[in-house]
């Protein structure tokens, strides 16, 4: 459970770094099919988290812009 909480608190930059690490591992020609699949699955989960983080920031920006427009 603590590992899940830590993963949810990662910054977007940390998530991108994790994706880079996964990609580097996938590029290794010695990696087996089963390990490749596990890494692919892990990468897709990290990518989903990245998309959620980006969506959250976009919504915050829209809210800020809306608030600013209403003040003018």
Structure description:
- With 72 residues, the protein is mostly helical.
- The protein has 3 helices and no strands.
- Helix 2 (12-26) runs antiparallel to helix 3.
- The longest helix has 39 residues, at 33-71.
- The relative contact order is 0.11.
Summary, kept brief:
The protein is mostly helical and 72 residues long.
Mind sketching the topology for me?
Elements: H1 2-8, H2 12-26, H3 33-71
Helix pairs in contact: 2-3
How large is the share of residues in beta strands?
under 5%
| Global mean pLDDT | 88
Helix percentage: over 70%
Unreliable residue runs: none
How many alpha or pi helices?
3
- Overall, the morphology is rod-shaped
Q: Give the termini separation.
A: 46 Å
In quaternary terms, these chains amount to single chain
Order of helices and strands: HHH
